[in-house]
């Protein structure tokens, strides 16, 4: 059964589509199977015409913030200091953005309130979903106004979940590493007991603040671990100021991958790449993904372990 939140998303999505305020980007889904993951590659040729904005444009270039003001036709609801919007250019229907009402930078880490808002949205979706944060210049982000994205996955899990499910010791709170991935990353299983928001005597909605604080602990442990892994690797040659990374979270686990390149040739990779979901806009790029292989592409945009 759909939640009230999902009904509102569906109604507003249909209306925005009808009004021409939102574009569903036609795409073809291809599955590239490997031993451990069935990678998903979406080929969306019409996106080639949409220029990819730089996160940090040149000083003399005008900076346009699409979230200030946000478009009313894309509105889903408010949550505290955040607004939940429909993604204007979606490849998957009902793709959501959680934006800060006040301008904040996409180069900031996530804080308890950000994570409470993410968990509010995810816990009101009855089907699996994936939240992600493209942080920093090399992360695949193109908008500087702080935003997290939540993508509903229908009945599916993200492709990478087959590797995560295969981990035998699933202790919440301990860091895990995927043996299949030859690049720096770290993950953590979430403590399901700490994900239940306590009821709030002042409101019919439970209180998400404590979950936000717990998730911020997870986020910062992953960020600390990421930095120490890079320190071990790099003998001082990596600058941690302005470090770019991708953060992904489902209801069961969270994952962080630091980034050294935004793209592989013309193929821009954002957090979804590390969920096993690649987007290409040109036929030659599709061919390149087939020839080079998704794992090799991910290795090029992340930091190889050796
Ligand atoms: P960012 O964090 O800045 O970057 P992004 O998701 O990589 O999207 P980008 O804009 O660079 O687009 P791309 O062609 O690579 O996110 C900004 C978000 O704001 C985007 O979702 C954008 O669509 C949205 N937006 C821009 N203007 C807006 C407005 N006025 N109101 C509301 N939202 C607005 O990719 C195109 C889309 O495909 C992106 O949504 C991307 O997240 C998604 N995508 C990428 N890989 C995918 C995959 N494998 N499967 C499904 N979707 C995928």
TrEMBL record:
InterPro entries the UniProt entry points to: Ap4A_phos1/2 (IPR009163), Ap4A_phos1/2-like (IPR043171), Ap4A_phos1/2_N (IPR045759), ATP_adenylylTrfase_C (IPR019200), HIT-like_sf (IPR036265)
Ranges of residues in domain ATP adenylyltransferase C-terminal: 211-304
Domain Ap4A phosphorylase 1/2 N-terminal: 5-169
One annotated GO biological process: nucleotide metabolic process
MF GO annotations: ATP binding; ATP:ADP adenylyltransferase activity
A Pfam family the protein falls into: Ap4A_phos_N
Catalytic residue list: 147 (nucleophile)
PANTHER family: AP-4-A PHOSPHORYLASE II, PUTATIVE (AFU_ORTHOLOGUE AFUA_5G14690)-RELATED
Name of the protein described by the UniProt record: 6459_t:CDS:1
Source species of the chain: Paraglomus occultum
